[in-house]
Write a structure and sequence with these properties.
- By secondary structure, the chain is mostly beta strands.
- It has one helix and ten strands.
- The strands form three sheets. The protein has a four-stranded parallel beta sheet, with helices on one face. Strands 3-6-9 form a three-stranded parallel beta sheet, with no helix packed on it.
- Helix 1 links the parallel strand 1 and strand 2.
- It is globular and about 40 Å long.
Length: 106
Amino acid sequence: ALVSPFLWKNTMATTYQVATFSELQTAIESTAVDGDVVALTADIDVTSEITISNRINVISSGSQMYYLDGGGNSRIFSIHNSVNVSNLKFQNGNAYSEYGGAIYHP
């Protein structure tokens, strides 16, 4: 499932705390592996589409709900695996003439 109420269970999971677009993109596209957690610690303006290829968890850190804002210029996520998303707000994603302004899952 694309969105699930539970986190992938991985006893060796690493949590990557991110506060900028660059940190988010690096954590998701280059660093995180199956079962890892990418936790937002701030609202993030997304400047280009981020491709998710691993089974990861993308969450807001703590009780705060943070947003990912595509600025009307970009899709936010292109997901090519199962991903757990929790306590995040997506806004202003734009896929132009394609499907999935915030999230595209082919």
